[in-house]
Write a structure and sequence with these properties.
The structure holds 2 protein chains of 2 kinds. By secondary structure, chain A is an alpha/beta fold. Chain A contains 7 helices and 9 strands; from the N terminus they run βββαββαααβαβαββα. Chain A has a domain of 102 residues: 3-Layer(aba) Sandwich (Rossmann fold), CATH 3.40.50.300. Chain A is 36% helix and 27% strand. The radius of gyration of chain A is 17 Å and the shape is globular. Classes of the chains: A alpha/beta, B mainly alpha.
């Protein structure tokens, strides 16, 4: 289990979490939904030890697909990926599945937003870690690439029994990728579903769209 | 498309130079006094004559050498100060008033004082260093602070070693703005060195040749020396722009859309 115990987090005068607790099962894909400012990214950053906080969090090695790709701009795609994985065959395999194998010798600035995001996804998947964190991983992708990426990730997560925590605004990918969906609002969990099915999308739309 | 843009830029540059030359010719025609505004032809003639004089090459070489020395010294001191400022925030606070004072002190006043302590050969270098140092220091600090926080987070999350972070991530990103500004730093430094050489009447220097031309009312020669200084400054900037483009290819391309 990955546990957040009594987490309190403030950004200057804004209280994001106060005595917030959450447990995440290992080997599952957990999706965190919520409005902007509800603390979704903060939770990921706390787990990745990228921000200070009060409380306790299970110490795990994380891989991260950031909301902005954060690729190292002076390195080619291949060199970016080689920093996290030495196996070139594995790199090529993942890149082929994400349709960026022809961009391995390009620099991030040569790529479109969607291509950079796919490289970031590849990096996140290739880095050997206990938990994969993803912050809006499909935001720059068009529908076709989004569906391809979701299918690929689903396959990979199942194969490697990976623990994944991802944040998104999109109910579409939440329902298709997650084993468990949590909705955050005002420092608390207002929806928690560990049996995601066909009805979940409708439930979520109802919840997200209500005043 | 890229070549078309280059061609347009070239045409506009040539056109604007042609306008400047045309205006100059008109003003010279109106003023009709070569001691005030020499004609274009007299200036060009005096300029070409300079290239036949060995003294000119010696002066040019030594002025450029002083410029290089001043830039290298400023660069080295500014780099060390910037590293110390980043590592020790208290040091940054200590440097801050010092940098401000150096920046504000009137350059020519400094030159006159330094001439008392040194000699006309060294004084222009010292003055140039004092002017360039705060500038280059600020450029380094800006470059260090300009490293994207997201990149720093990525380096942290993916457990990059210290060596990898410094040499593969941070240094190239700091180097880009520094190298790209080095061209304009050099051409600014040439301007400073020549001004200081004029004031100090430095022997065997472009500034010294300018002062001599001025004293003997050889205004076309003075204009010619000025023209050469401008061209050298522009050439140096162009060289560094070229170096930046070649060494930092990763920064060159435009973003495409999906």
């Amino acid at each position: 289990m990955i546990n957040f115990n009594n987490i309190t987090k403030r950004y200057k005068d804004t209280l994001v979490f106060e005595n917030f607790s959450l447990s995440i099962k290992e080997g599952e894909t957990t999706c965190i939904l919520g409005e902007s400012g509800s603390g979704k990214t903060t939770l990921l950053n706390i787990l990745a030890n990228l921000t200070d906080y009060e409380g306790e969090v299970t110490n795990v090695k994380c891989s991260y697909v950031f909301q902005t790709p954060n690729l190292f701009p002076n390195l080619t795609v291949l060199d970016n990926l080689k920093l996290v994985c030495q196996d070139e065959n594995e790199i090529k395999s993942v890149c082929e599945k994400l349709k960026i194998a022809d961009k391995l010798l390009s620099y991030p600035k040569h790529l479109s937003g969607g291509q950079r995001q796919r490289v970031s996804l590849a990096r996140g998947v290739l880095f050997n870690a206990d938990v994969l964190l993803m912050d809006e991983p499909f935001s720059s992708l068009d529908l076709k690439n989004k569906v391809q990426a979701i299918n690929l990730l689903k396959e990979l997560f199942k194969e490697k029994k990976k623990t994944v925590v991802f944040v998104t605004h999109g109910v579409f990918e939440a329902v298709r990728l997650a084993d468990r969906i949590i909705v955050l609002e005002n420092n608390s969990i207002v929806y928690d579903n560990s049996k995601v099915n066909e009805k979940t999308e409708k439930e979520l739309f109802g919840l997200m769209l209500k005043d | 498309m890229k070549n078309k843009n280059r061609l347009y830029n070239l045409i506009f540059s040539v056109f604007s130079i042609a306008i400047i030359v045309a205006l100059w010719a008109i003003v010279a025609l109106v003023v009709k006094n070569e001691y005030v505004v020499p004609t274009v032809s007299d200036t060009l003639s005096a300029t070409f004559k300079l290239f036949t004089e060995s003294a000119f090459y010696v002066a040019l070489g030594l002025t450029l050498l002083r410029t290089v020395i001043a830039v290298v010294i400023s660069f080295a001191i500014a780099f060390i100060m910037a590293i110390l400022s980043q590592v020790f925030p208290l040091v940054k606070k200590l440097f801050s008033p010092l940098i401000s004072i150096i920046r504000i002190v009137p350059t020519m006043a400094v030159l006159l004082v330094i001439l008392l302590w040194t000699n006309p050969t060294i004084a222009p270098v010292v003055v140039a260093v004092l002017v360039m140092l705060p500038m280059i220091y600020s450029q380094f600090i800006t470059a260090f602070n300009g490293i994207d926080e997201g990149i720093i987070n990525a380096a942290k999350v993916f457990n990059l070693t210290k060596r990898q972070r410094i040499f593969k991530v941070y240094l190239p990103q700091v180097a880009l703005p520094i190298v790209s500004q080095t061209g304009s730093n050099f051409s600014f430094c040439i301007k400073l060195i020549i001004s200081a050489e004029v004031m100090a009447y430095t022997f065997r220097s472009i500034g010294g040749l300018m002062t001599t031309a001025n004293v003997f009312f050889e205004i076309p020669r003075l204009m010619g020396l000025t023209l050469i200084s401008v061209i050298i400054g522009l050439l140096i900037e162009m060289i560094f722009n070229f170096i930046t483009k070649k060494c930092f290819k990763w920064n060159n391309a435009e973003v495409k859309n999906d």
